[in-house]
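Milestone 3.1: sequence recovery, worked example.
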């Protein structure tokens, strides 16, 4: 029996919270789980994830600030029914998501898809406020909050810890911890526009050791939210 893979939307709305890093890590995780995945890049002015992944994944770019972009995006999901769809969102997409997100929300049933949101946060209040607004557009969606360790250890996310948003999230989703990667390795990864697979092949031994340490922690995080391709019948 085929499993329909979800649409994974990596959100966060805010600039620089780590959406692209999480998207790269998720793409690499799915790749290593042998789950066929395709990428939707919505950061059309700075398609950094698409540049890093285009040799390894089928990619398409859609501007989600625009109704046409949403139509293209929904059609792309339909065209790739056998694949997981990973969506890298741009900081500025918030207005478009609020305005047109219902286009997708209404179509998910017909597409036979689940939408799984990975909402990346830093330690500031507006990360949570934007999440609240997003939740109103997609009330039935499973959302996981990703505390990005780049901004500090999990116990530094006190605002989130004490928030009502966390309680709401944890009724359906999880609070996750995305590991911090050493700056030197993160900078090299991003400046080379490399995928993690390519970086794992080409980096110097020291950087590679750090990359593998980080990848193991990423694996532990994603394994909590990515359903395995195998069904009970073929295990
Ligand atoms: N977990 C992490 N470990 C190490 N560095 C990180 C991590 N998360 C983010 N960074 C650093 O922060 C920078 C910004 O992250 P990223 O580009 O993923 O953010 P973004 O949310 O996609 O930003 P934008 O809104 O501009 O698209 C990265 O280039 C990287 O240097
Ligand atoms: Mg980005």
């Amino acid at each position: 029996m085929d499993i329909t893979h979800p649409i994974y939307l990596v959100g966060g709305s805010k600039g620089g919270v780590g959406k692209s890093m999480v998207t790269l890590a998720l793409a690499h995780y799915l790749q290593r789980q042998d789950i066929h995945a395709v990428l939707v890049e919505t950061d059309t002015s700075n398609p950094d994830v698409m540049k890093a992944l285009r040799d390894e994944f089928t990619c398409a770019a859609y501007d989600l600030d625009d109704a046409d972009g949403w139509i293209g995006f929904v059609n792309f999901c339909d065209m790739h029914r056998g694949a997981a769809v990973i969506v890298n969102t741009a900081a500025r997409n918030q207005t478009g998501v609020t305005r047109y997100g219902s286009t997708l929300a209404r179509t998910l049933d017909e597409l036979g898809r689940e939408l799984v949101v990975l909402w990346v946060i830093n330690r500031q209040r507006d990360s949570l406020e934007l999440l609240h607004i997003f939740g109103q557009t997609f009330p039935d969606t499973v959302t996981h909050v990703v505390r990005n360790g780049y901004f500090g250890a999990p116990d530094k996310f006190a605002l989130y810890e004490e928030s009502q948003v966390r309680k709401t999230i944890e009724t359906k989703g999880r609070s996750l911890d995305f590991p911090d990667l050493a700056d030197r390795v993160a900078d090299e990864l991003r400046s080379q526009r490399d995928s993690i697979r390519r970086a794992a092949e080409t980096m110097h031994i020291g950087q590679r050791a750090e990359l593998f340490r980080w990848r193991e922690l990423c694996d532990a995080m994603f394994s909590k939210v990515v359903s395995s391709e195998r069904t009970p019948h073929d295990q």
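Residues 7-230 form a domain with the Rossmann fold fold (CATH 3.40.50.300). Residues 144 and 174 are 5 Å apart (CA to CA).
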